[in-house]
Write a structure and sequence with these properties.
This protein has about 375 residues and is mainly alpha-helical. The chain has one domain. It contains 21 helices and two strands.
Length: about 375
């Protein structure tokens, strides 16, 4: 009886548990706490956390690939097969399709100049890239770390899976953690960079945008973007196709599927797959700490880049543009725009910046996809 019990214990996961796996399981619990209790990006942070838990359970083999054992084929683990959607570059473009179906580009079309703010807010990508090179990361790793500054989780996952798959776990967790912390990171920077007088500027109401403009926009952006930067076509094309479903007026059922069932299912698969790349041997390294610090620097520089360019546009427009909307140029939609609106309303209760901030915000989504395409073309 005791021998049978001893044999059972020796073949259990408890006997195979390492210190690193135990620590990663605790990390997964912390991520679950942030997702459930603090509500930090719960729709993706919760699947990532549970994927991290599953992949670090000893002897479960959920990320093991297929193999031959004693001449018999043994299929791989569940997470191994789910991860193929990341490795083959399937999930991120499908997420972008859903985002496109949910996004209204009207504010951007009503104020085309706001695309410049979306571009300026990508400063953190290239600042973090240079910082990563200085710290000794190779070019592929530096490019993957830099994209954190775009504040766009699917783009970070897509680029990292292409350039440096081994860093996917730390980079994805860093990207989504800092996206969730935007309400805490950005307001102090706004008050530091933009003087109170400019924070109180009330902007004029945006012009109406016609249906024809909304339909032509995704088609033109896809053609021009793919011709100029073919490597950005998967993300940019999926984003614009999803938006075309939304604005065409003839594919409501497809648009609703893209923005609901499709993106929800892919989010589950993507989160579990990313979490599966946080095994102890890959995550508990000095590199992870460097990535977290560089990710914070990337977010900071992106916000400052948008704000400084916003101040420049304010001067050139004769004080008609509130520089705060530049902070929305990071592509965390719509959280960054809401933070801008909140800070603006605190300075001037009659100020309504939300729709003005949505222009740079959606421009940032396009900007991060283009930046990823540039990095992929140069470093891939």
């Amino acid at each position: 009886m005791l021998k049978n019990l001893e044999a059972l214990l020796m073949t259990s996961g408890l006997a195979g548990m390492t210190l690193g796996q135990g620590l990663m399981i605790l990390v997964s619990f912390c991520l679950m706490y942030l997702a459930i209790v603090k509500k930090y990006e719960p729709l993706l942070l919760l699947p990532i956390a549970f994927g991290a838990l599953l992949t670090n359970l000893p002897l479960a083999g959920l990320m093991d690939g297929p193999s031959m054992v004693n001449g018999k084929f043994q299929p791989g683990g569940l997470l191994y097969y789910l991860y193929q959607g990341v490795e083959l570059g399937i999930y991120p473009p499908l997420i972008f399709l859903g985002i496109g179906a949910m996004t209204d580009f009207g504010p951007l079309l009503a104020n085309p100049k706001s695309i410049l703010l979306g571009a300026a807010a990508q400063l953190g990508i290239f600042a973090a890239l240079l910082g990563a090179i200085v710290l000794g990361f190779d070019l592929q790793a530096a490019g993957s770390i830099g994209i954190i500054g775009g504040a766009d989780g699917p783009t970070a996952i897509y680029l990292t899976s292409r350039l440096k798959p081994d860093l996917l776990g730390p980079i994805a967790i860093s990207a989504y953690s800092y996206m969730a912390l935007i309400p805490f990171i950005q307001p102090p920077l706004m008050r530091l960079v933009v003087p109170k007088k400019e924070r109180m500027i009330v902007m004029e109401q945006l012009r109406p945008v016609s249906q024809k403009e909304k339909i032509l926009f995704p088609i033109i952006v896809t053609v021009v973007g793919a011709l100029l930067l073919p490597s950005a076509a998967p993300l940019l094309g999926s984003l614009m196709f999803g938006n075309l479903l939304r604005v065409s007026g003839v594919a409501d059922r497809l648009a609703k599927t893209a923005e609901n069932e499709l993106i929800n299912i892919i989010t589950i698969f993507l989160g579990l797959s990313v979490g599966a790349k946080t095994s102890a041997d890959q995550f508990l390294t000095a590199q992870t700490l460097g990535i977290l610090l560089l990710g914070l620097a990337a977010f900071t520089f992106s916000t400052i880049g948008g704000l400084l360019f916003g101040r420049l546009m304010c001067k050139l427009s004769g004080g008609k543009i509130n520089p705060l909307i530049g902070a929305a140029g990071v592509s965390a939609v719509p959280m960054a725009a809401r933070v801008v609106h909140k800070v603006g309303a605190e300075e001037n209760p009659g100020n309504y910046l939300l729709m003005h901030a949505m222009g740079p915000n959606v421009a940032g989504v396009i900007g991060s996809a283009v930046a990823a395409g540039i990095l992929l073309a140069r470093l891939g």
